């Protein structure tokens, strides 16, 4: 018994040490990013590089707002990200509910056709989509970045469809007996029970919109409409003889805050959503 207990303790200690080492290795780039954001431009060029700044340059966080229209870009990304989440949740939840609750003739065929759109690479639809939005006079507006979210996403529809399929039919039968319409059952029965799945979709949609660089580059030409990824990419452009890496790290730290905050708030729901949508 003692040998077995000592063996279990040794395994636990080894697992803990491996976890600590792995955590350290994963946090090392984050630490280096924060450390670099607080260094002076001169210190960035020193070799070998220092892990901690010799003098903490907190003014870098103020300088980035003076060097670049960073505040406006940050607000643009937030507006686009929030509206994208709203559109994705509404359209994907509605379509996912329809695929989960209606099993008529040909429903599986339509579902497979919907899933097949995930195999289309974005470059295949990029030019026709650009021509469409240009004819609608949406170029250099936020509409091409927001409106497509209100037409659903195949992956998110699939994710929510899997979750809605796990809800018991008795709940919806009781709703029909009480005279509820399908839309009311979706709104008052399905959605309140789908918090974990909706949180998962919201996080995925916000992260995709927040990190998207290609779409804003295609459709936005005015500097006051640029998003955060577009602004950050300009740091490595030819207008800088030596890229201001310290400001780029400042922008990276500030750009990371909404994602970390969102995940910290919805972490429990996010994990539940991944688990529950994968069980069935």
Automatic annotation (TrEMBL):
Molecular function terms from GO: ATP binding
PROSITE patterns: ABC_TM1
Transmembrane residue ranges: 12-34, 78-97, 109-132, 138-158, 189-210, 245-266
Gene3D superfamilies cross-referenced by the UniProt entry: MetI-like (1.10.3720.10)
GO biological process, one term: transmembrane transport
Keywords: ATP-binding, Cell membrane, Membrane, Nucleotide-binding, Transmembrane, Transmembrane helix, Transport
GO cellular component: plasma membrane
Compartments, record wording: Cell membrane
Record-linked CDD domains: TM_PBP2 (cd06261)
The keyword Transport appears for this protein: yes
Location of the ABC transmembrane type-1 domain: 74-266
Topology in membrane: Multi-pass membrane protein
Keyword Cell membrane on entry: yes
Domain of life the protein comes from: Bacteria
Family of the protein in this entry: Belongs to the binding-protein-dependent transport system permease family.
PANTHER family: ABC TRANSPORTER PERMEASE PROTEIN MG189-RELATED, ABC TRANSPORTER PERMEASE PROTEIN MG189-RELATED-RELATED
Protein name: Sugar ABC transporter ATP-binding protein
């Amino acid at each position: 018994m003692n040998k077995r207990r000592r063996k279990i303790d040794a395994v636990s200690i080894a697992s803990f040490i491996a976890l600590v080492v792995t955590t350290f290795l994963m946090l090392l780039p984050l630490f280096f990013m924060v450390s670099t954001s607080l260094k002076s431009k001169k210190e960035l060029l020193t070799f070998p590089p220092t892990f901690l700044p010799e003098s903490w340059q907190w003014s870098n966080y103020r300088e980035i707002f003076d060097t670049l229209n960073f505040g406006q870009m940050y607000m643009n990304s937030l507006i686009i990200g929030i509206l994208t989440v709203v559109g994705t949740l509404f359209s994907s939840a509605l379509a996912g509910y329809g695929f989960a609750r209606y099993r008529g003739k040909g429903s599986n065929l339509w579902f497979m056709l919907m899933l097949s759109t995930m195999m289309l690479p974005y470059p295949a639809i990029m030019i026709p989509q650009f021509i469409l939005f240009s004819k609608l006079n949406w170029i250099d507006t936020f509409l091409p970045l927001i409106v497509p979210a209100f037409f659903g996403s195949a992956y998110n529809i699939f994710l929510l469809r899997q979750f809605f399929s796990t809800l018991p039919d008795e709940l919806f039968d009781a709703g029909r007996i009480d005279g509820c319409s399908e839309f009311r059952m979706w709104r008052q029965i399905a959605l309140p029970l789908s918090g974990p799945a909706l949180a998962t979709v919201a996080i995925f949609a916000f992260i995709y919109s927040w990190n998207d660089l290609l779409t804003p580059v295609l459709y936005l030409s005015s500097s006051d409409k640029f998003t955060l990824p577009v602004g950050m990419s300009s740091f490595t452009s030819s207008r800088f003889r030596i890229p201001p890496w310290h400001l780029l790290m400042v922008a990276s730290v500030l750009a990371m805050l909404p994602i970390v905050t969102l995940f910290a708030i919805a972490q429990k729901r996010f994990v539940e959503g991944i688990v529950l949508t994968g069980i069935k």
